[in-house]
Write a structure and sequence with these properties.
Blueprint (H helix, E strand, L loop, with lengths): L1 H11 L5 H20 L2 H45 L3 E5 L5 E4 L1 H7 L3 H4 L15 H7 L6 E4 L8 E8 L2 E12 L5 E10 L1 H36 L6 H31 L8 E4 H18 L3 E5 L6 E4 L1 H17 L6 E8 L5 E8 L20 H6 L7 H11 L4 E6 L3 E9 L15
Parallel strand pairs: 8-10
Antiparallel strand pairs: 1-2, 1-6, 3-4, 4-5, 5-6, 7-9, 10-11, 11-13, 12-13
Protein name: histidine kinase
InterPro entries: BphY/WalK/GraS-like, HATPase_C_sf, HATPase_dom, His_kinase_dom, HisK_dim/P_dom, HisK_dim/P_sf, PAS, PAS-like_dom_sf
Enzyme class: transferase
Amino acid sequence: MERKWREFMFYAKKPEMRIFWLFILLALSVVIVQSIYLPGVLSWLVVGVLILIAVVFFSSTFNLAKSNFAVKLEHEQLLGIFRSLQDGVIAYDPNFNIEVFNVAAEKMFNIKSDEILNTVFTPNKSSDPRFKLLSQVIFPSLAPIVIPRSLASDWPQIVDISFSDPLLEVRVTTAKILDPRGKLLGFMKIIQDRTREVSVAKSKSEFVTVAAHQLRTPLSAVSWTFQTLDTDKGIPENLKQIIHNGKLATDKLLKTVNDLLDVSKIEDGRFGYSMIKTNLIKFIEDVLSVKMGVAQVYGIKMYFDKPKDDIEVKIDIKKMTLVLDNLLENAIKYNVKNGEIIVAVEKIKDKPFVQVSVKDTGVGIPANQINKLFDKFFRADNVIKYQTEGTGLGLYIVKNILRQHGGEVWAESVINRGSIFYFTLPIDDNLIPIKEVFMGE
């Protein structure tokens, strides 16, 4: 009972209850006046009506006071969380009026929240050196280097922004703030400082590049030596198989080194693309004609389900050959004896894209690992048991090449039934990224 009384007194003092207490004073005045001038029965009727209104009024204002306090408490708790976050948090309404600017954001942009809260932030602020960095985060189109990490139609929007003065690498995630009915209330940006992370990744990449370059030159010489000996008719028969095995092993190691160099170039944004208009059907036929002999050695039949009409796409022929080679090589290597591979091409209805699929009858990929398939160095458990060799770099390179072409890649698979790898390419040249950027994360 005492707890209930304390709760009543707590909410009774809230601003929302003032109108109720004013009503009570007014009602008491009416009761006093009408008791003098109105007959007894009518007087009691008025009192009853006033009591009924008072009860309804009290219930409404009391619940409103409780609700507003709960919202305020939740708001304060949320602000407390935002203040303690290591990442910068900025929230603003649709008119860009800044409503939240946490401590991490203050340190990151060297701006006090008092200077910016409840002010409308516009692109013109970028002319002020103190607000230039913040302007480029709120309006990424003003930033010097912006790398999108999400599709333009997706929410939340994710971009990486690089600054040289000061040296800063940030990942900005922008989310909509909606009310329960879906009405837009504003936006929230979470700014993650990735300067150290990017610096460490760059150092690793530089180390891999130097190491791979140092390895490639002697390996190329060793491979050339084995190749020369392999074709030398004067070599005794008992040494020929050893030389042949040595050449195969060297070539595999050289391929791994080249893959590492390719990954390093991709992640540095210097893989180098030369896009030209190409007949996609003719291009695929040329690649398949080369791979047909390899498939026959493994006892695998290869088919091409091609459309009636030619399809023109803008691609880097060398890079796309690498994509198709990789997918076909996997389809051959992880297939079953007397298996099949079907390559199909079709235009996607009502979209400016063409879809290519590579279907095999191989060992398949576990369902719980399909989402990791295009991660760097990833290899499925069953594939490792089936084929112990491999780096897990091939599909990672494939994904990045296709994204740089404006396309996507994904896979469907059933264990012991086979897999289908799909990739898309835009027919509209405007959908191809203008700048070469690393999009592998």
